[in-house]
Write a structure and sequence with these properties.
This protein is mainly alpha-helical and about 110 residues long. The chain is built from two helices and three strands.
Length: about 110
């Protein structure tokens, strides 16, 4: 299996089991988790797995298309609503859903 790492220069390179040397310079130093983190830092990723930013981009496109179907237009500034209020209320819903998922994942 080939793993991919992010080089300090911003490009990715393949890692095999014999070397982890970046072709563009030394690999960044290993770090422990940040203070207050409850889990380890991410590891090298498998290039065959989904890339989360691409999934989010697809989700954003789908949401825009849904908004156009529902309201006849994509979301625009100065539409008569408070974006800050809408975002705050959505974040409250998000917090509830996240806590639900954690509770279910942790077996509570």
């Amino acid at each position: 299996m080939t793993w991919t790492r992010l080089c300090p220069c911003g490009t990715t390179y393949n890692v095999d089991t014999n070397t982890e040397e970046c072709p563009h310079g030394p690999k960044p130093p290993e770090r422990g988790g940040r203070e207050g983190d409850s889990q380890a830092l991410p590891t090298a990723y498998d290039s065959d797995k989904a890339k989360i930013h691409e999934l989010v981009q697809r989700d954003l496109q789908a949401r825009m298309e849904l908004g156009i179907r529902r309201y006849g237009t994509p979301l625009q500034a100065h539409n008569g609503r408070s974006a800050l209020r809408d975002a705050y209320e959505e974040s409250l819903d998000l917090a509830v859903y996240l806590r639900q998922a954690l509770e279910e994942q942790e077996g509570g």
